[in-house]
What we know:
Blueprint: H1 2-17, H2 23-44, H3 49-102, H4 104-109, H5 112-140, H6 142-164, H7 166-175, H8 182-220, H9 226-235, H10 242-259, H11 263-289, H12 297-338, H13 341-344, H14 350-353
Helix pairs in contact: 2-3, 2-6, 3-5, 3-6, 3-10, 8-9, 8-11, 8-12, 9-10, 10-11
Amino acid sequence: MRFWAAALAAVLFLLWLFADILLPFVAGMALAYLLDPVADRLERHGVPRLAATLLILTVFAAFFIILLVALVPVLVSQLDSFILRFPEYSDRLKVLFDQWSQGWVGRLLQDGSQKIESNIGTILQNLASWVGSFAKSLLSGGMAVVNMVALLVVTPVVAFYLLVDWDNMISRLDDLLPRNHKQEIRRIMGEIDEALSGFIRGQTMVCAILGGFYAIGLTLIGLNFGLLIGLVAGLISFIPYVGSISGFIVAVTVALVQFWPDWTYVALTAVVFIAGQTIEGNILQPKLVGDHVGLHPVWLMFALFAFGYLFGFVGMLLAVPVAAALGVIVRFSVAKYQQSALYYGTSATQDSED
């Protein structure tokens, strides 16, 4: 027990120490893990592992480059326009609130309307300042440029070597397992792999489909920055409720500023997100992710925010695997406890408990 505790502490320390340079390696590991089932399937059809790896990564790189060339200029243009027009949008929101405060909203809130207006103005001013500083640091940060270059250059190389040697690495790790407990450890690792594959591969598809749905829907109704808002809302949908709620708030706010006093397009903007959540809850999640993942939304959100706070963006990438692994280990420990003498009592038996 002491050995495993010391090993965990050492891993966390190294993760914290090298967090700034781990991004391309973690991304390469995640990419290899995602694409390994495809390589295994090609291998079963007689394609050599090396050829299968080259084919998969070539197709993936071509698809990624096409997507990058098609979307990035539009997204950068919309982001730049959004940042430039944010002060105008905040002023327009304050004007709208002034108008509403003169009507039924003001009569409903009475004396509290001025305080709410002042608070909204302060929030918008702080938010504008934060957006400006964040964009400036994002565009001018030297480390961000280095990370981006490393991500585009190192990640494919790491993914290639890991994907070619994936089965051999698993076999070598299997040889290191304690012989007396290898079957139990294999079972635990199989459950962890099932949870990870069910969540990561399934949720990746869910995020991609939702991002496309939101982006197309918002663009079709003519919402400013609809492509940007929709794609970002879809991409962060792996955080339960955060993606949909934040995307809904931003989209409806932009719709109010753009379309007011025409309620039709504001309502259509809301309908896009309501329809997306309906499709996700009733079709995408059951079909692509399933119920076997075992990651409670609260536990997942805590893991994402905790690891993001401690280790930055790399921590957010590692949060889901760690949360899934800990969930499986906790369930295994609880099952062992319920079968132990401590659970039944030293003098009690299971028969007497029944």
